[in-house]
Design brief:
Elements (H helix, E strand, L loop, with lengths): L1 E9 L5 H14 L2 E6 L8 H4 L4 E7 L5 H13 L2 E5 L1 H4 L6 H7 L1 E5 L6 E7 L13 E5 L3 E4 L4 E8 L12 E11 L2 E6 L11 H14 L5
Parallel strand pairs: 1-2, 1-3, 3-4, 4-11
Antiparallel strand pairs: 5-8, 6-7, 6-9, 9-10, 10-11
Length: 220
């Protein structure tokens, strides 16, 4: 049986408890043994991390110790997957560039804040994560991110919608869903998920389900 560790905490506004229960239930329904932890101390045991199939961080705007970061990076390099959503994965530790290198991106802005209506444009119909899923609307925060050029972009959203000084640069297609590799490990991220109700249904939920399962498979 595959084993997943969900580590939740940080800023309460991202509903880490609700999101962890949602993703934990999703993984259990797909045959995973799931442990949910409320402390970053779960990253202290490097050997235990390497026995996992998947790490799911749900921790926004916190601080991770250098040895904890090193243990996660090493586990993923050895073949453990990592996957998550929104600020729980790509706005977790703003001071930790190693974490940002691993995950493939970092939140920098959400023009218009919460309640922006936008479209997620699926870009890769051949990926098992997005195959058969078409474009779909979202009403939430629209994440503007700094993104690793090495990621494989599976879905995007077009900026600008909300006004702001960045709009003078013209239209840009910002990655929403991506994957990448880290050694033998797989990395999955979706920027959707400001609140649990954004990803508890429809295409957003199916993409997260498929993405976490995909990440749990070790590359040769």
């Amino acid at each position: 049986m595959k084993r997943a560790l969900i580590v939740r905490g940080g800023w309460d506004g991202h509903e880490p408890v609700k999101v962890s229960e949602l993703l934990g239930g999703l993984l259990r329904e797909n045959g995973f043994e799931v442990e949910i932890s409320d402390t970053l101390d779960s990253f202290n045991d490097a050997d235990a991390l390497k026995r996992l199939s998947l790490i799911v961080p749900i921790w926004s705007m916190g601080r991770i110790l250098p040895e904890q970061e090193k243990a996660v990076l090493s586990a993923v390099e050895s073949g453990v997957g990592i996957g998550g959503c929104h600020g729980g994965m790509c706005d977790s530790f703003r001071e930790s560039v190693g974490w940002q290198f691993l995950t493939g991106g970092q939140w920098v802005a959400h023009p218009g804040n919460d309640g922006v209506e936008y479209v997620v444009n699926v870009r890769s119909a051949s990926s098992p994560i997005t195959q058969g899923i078409g474009d779909f609307p979202v009403k939430s925060e629209q994440y503007y991110m700094h993104v690793d050029p090495a990621v494989e972009v599976l879905a995007t959203t077009r900026f600008p919608i909300a006004p702001g000084p960045y709009a003078s640069n013209g239209q840009v297609d910002m990655p929403v869903v991506w994957t990448k590799r880290w050694g033998r490990g797989r990395v999955f991220f979706s920027s959707l998920g400001h609140h649990a109700d954004v990803i508890d249904h429809g295409p957003a939920l199916e993409i997260v389900r498929r993405g976490l399962i995909w990440a749990s498979a070790e590359d040769p």
